[in-house]
Amino acid sequence: MMVEYSELVNGVSIHVSNCPERAIVDALRHVVRDFCKRTKVWVYDNPALAIEEGKLEYALTLPTDSAVFHLWGLDGRSGCYAALQNVYLDPPVNLVFTSQPSSSKAIKPLLSLMPSVKSTEFPSHIRETYEEHLIS
Question: Rounded to two decimals, what is the model's pTM?
Answer without folding.
Answer: 0.88
